[in-house]
Every structure is written in C-alpha cells, then in structure tokens.
Task: inverse folding
C-alpha cells in the first residue's frame, strides 16, 4: 500500500508539472525584446601649468650712432644672456621652447608706430632649451628708413632711442 501511495504522489507531482508547464507555454507566445540606455559620465581633470622663469642679463652694446641703412647705416647690437628654467621640481629639463623678442620703441616726440616705420630688430636665435646654460642672444637694431618729414628728422637727429625688449618663451 505504501508503494502505491508513493506512486500516486509521484503521479500527482508529475501531473502538476505537466499542467503548469503547458499552461505557461499556452499563455506565453514569446519573450518580448527590451532595451535600456545608460549614459555614465566621467569628469575630466585639469592639468596644471608649471611656471617658468626667463632670466636676462644685459651684456655688451656695440655699434656707433645709428644712421639710415641707405646712408652707410650702422647697427646697434645688444648681447643679452637668456636663461629659461622651470620654477617647480617637475622634470621638464631639456624641453625646447620658441624664443620671440618683441620691441616697444620710444623716443621723445614720436609714436611707437612712427618709430616702427623707421627701425627694426633681428635675432639669430629662435629656440631655447629649458634647464640649459644661459644662451647669449644678440639683438640687432637697424635704422631701416629715413624719417618721412623734416619735423620727424629734427626729433630723431641726435635723439636717444629706447628699445624695450620683451623675451617670451613658448614651449614647443
């Protein structure tokens, strides 16, 4: 009797599974597709700039009184030692930078634009190495063009030309 009772319970369990599985399959015709979109964000950090110093040491000035180039003109040269070093302990030693020298001219009675029309400058050095020994930069001032009027000539003749040089280094 015990065997038939176990047999009956087993049949009932099997019947329950068959009926529920069939019911599930009967009511579900397929699994629907689904999608979900996520857009995680990442914060990008910022790099800090390492400060550097351009150090200048005024050296020798050569040349005689400037006269216009077309009249046997002379040039004035200024030798300036330029040193480029970083301020912090970051290791940028050996990096190369572009060296640009800009000039603001001044002379009593004349504007910068008037002086720029008469004078120019040149430098043979266009790059500098960070952390290297100071490099001598020779800035040559040239009197290119005669004053355009007698009034300008009178202001320039025997005058004192001041050239304010700005040395800028931009890392390459």
Result:
């Amino acid at each position: 009797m015990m065997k038939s009772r176990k047999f009956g319970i087993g049949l009932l369990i099997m019947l329950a599974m068959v009926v529920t599985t069939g019911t599930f399959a009967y009511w579900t015709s397929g699994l629907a597709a689904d999608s979900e979109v996520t857009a995680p964000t990442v914060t990008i950090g910022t790099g800090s700039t390492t400060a550097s110093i351009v150090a200048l040491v005024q050296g020798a000035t050569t040349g005689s009184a400037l006269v216009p180039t077309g009249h046997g003109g002379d040039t004035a040269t200024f030798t300036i030692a330029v040193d480029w070093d970083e301020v912090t302990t970051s290791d940028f030693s050996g990096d190369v930078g572009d060296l640009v020298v800009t000039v603001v001219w001044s002379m009593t009675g004349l504007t910068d634009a008037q002086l720029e029309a008469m004078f120019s400058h040149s430098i043979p050095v266009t790059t500098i190495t960070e952390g290297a020994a100071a490099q001598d930069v020779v800035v040559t001032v040239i009197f290119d063009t005669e004053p355009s009027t007698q009034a300008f000539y009178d202001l320039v003749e025997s005058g004192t030309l001041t050239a304010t040089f700005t040395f800028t280094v931009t890392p390459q």
Observations:
- Strands lie at 52-62, 75-86, 96-106, 119-122, 127-129, 135-143, 162-171.
- The chain has a mean pLDDT of 78.
- Residues 2-27 form the longest helix (26 residues).
- The first strand starts at residue 52 and ends at 62.
